[in-house]
Amino acid sequence: MSLLAGRTAVVTGSAQGIGYAIAEAFAAEGANLVIADINGDAAEAAALQLGIGSRAIGVACDVSSGADVAALAQAATDRFGSLDVFVNNAGITRDATMRKMTEDMFDQVIAVHLRGSWLGTRAAAAVMREQPGGGSIVNISSISGKVGLMGQTNYSAAKAGMVGLTKAAAKEVGFANVRVNAVQPGLIRTPMTEGMREDIKEARLKEIALGRMGEATEIAQAVLFLASDMSSYITGAVVEVTGGRHM
């Protein structure tokens, strides 16, 4: 039997990149999908691209807006009748050293990553705790939240905050069989990292025990594990998918 057959999953920021790879993995395992993205047209196109017909819809959502996130959770239950998996993946970067970083650059990253994940976790848990089967929430943090990276005081702070959020939320909603976990990706092959300067890329590759970049599909498989019953006794955990970087 497929791992997510008959279940409904919401993935934020999933019109492209890692989020879309997660949606593909979920779709292959039988899930109904709500593709959420700040660009509604891109979300609808991605839902169509999954090739699962009426099992996927696209929804415009600004994850920093409580009203948008509440409407997103409602859209899932209205269309499919349940909300079983919620992945807080949406993110942005506004990299700069502290000397050059503006307050707006800091606030924007915190709003999308940390506030957005809190809003998503709150909205999803409110639905899941009333369902007989509970549910699974997965927050996409980053290895930057573990070690801190130069030029990312905003991003590292937000991603570290997501770890604390994950653990605190897991304690609050575990009684209702709602599990909350986090994944910390390392250096993953995306259009953004592919554009990295070669000298910087080579330096980062030297930090990785497996000696290569990860693929978005490898993050997706870790998220699928946490979303499914394979991880039924795991909550409040942080899974590093880094190839052995920053151990």
How would you describe this protein?
The structure is a single chain. With 247 residues, this protein is of the alpha/beta class. It contains nine helices and seven strands; from the N terminus they run βαβαβαβαβααβαααβ. It has helices spanning 17-28, 40-49, 66-80, 103-128, 144-147, 153-173, 191-194, 198-205, 216-227, and strands at 8-12, 32-37, 56-60, 85-88, 135-140, 178-185, 238-241. The protein has a seven-stranded parallel β-sheet, sandwiched between helices. The relative contact order is 0.14. The model has no long low-confidence stretch (mean pLDDT 96).
Describe this structure in a few short sentences.
This protein is of the alpha/beta class. The protein has 9 helices and 7 strands.
Which terms summarize this structure?
alpha/beta; 7 strands; 9 helices; 247 residues; 45% helix
Topology of this protein?
Layout: E1 8-12, H1 17-28, E2 32-37, H2 40-49, E3 56-60, H3 66-80, E4 85-88, H4 103-128, E5 135-140, H5 144-147, H6 153-173, E6 178-185, H7 191-194, H8 198-205, H9 216-227, E7 238-241
Parallel strand pairs: 1-2, 1-4, 2-3, 4-5, 5-6, 6-7
Helix pairs in contact: 1-9, 3-4, 4-6
* Uncertain residue ranges: none
Q: Which range best describes the helical content: under 10%, 10-25%, 25-40%, 40-55%, 55-70% or over 70%?
A: 40-55%
Shape: globular
Q: Count of DSSP helices?
A: 9
Number of strands: 7
Q: Strand portion, in percent?
A: 15-25%
Secondary-structure-derived class? alpha/beta
The largest sheet, given as strand count, sense and whether it forms a barrel, is:
7 strands, parallel
**Global mean pLDDT:** 96
Distance between the termini: 36 Å
Enzyme class: oxidoreductase
EC number: 1.1.1.100
GO molecular function, one term: 3-oxoacyl-[acyl-carrier-protein] reductase (NADPH) activity
GO biological process, one term: fatty acid elongation
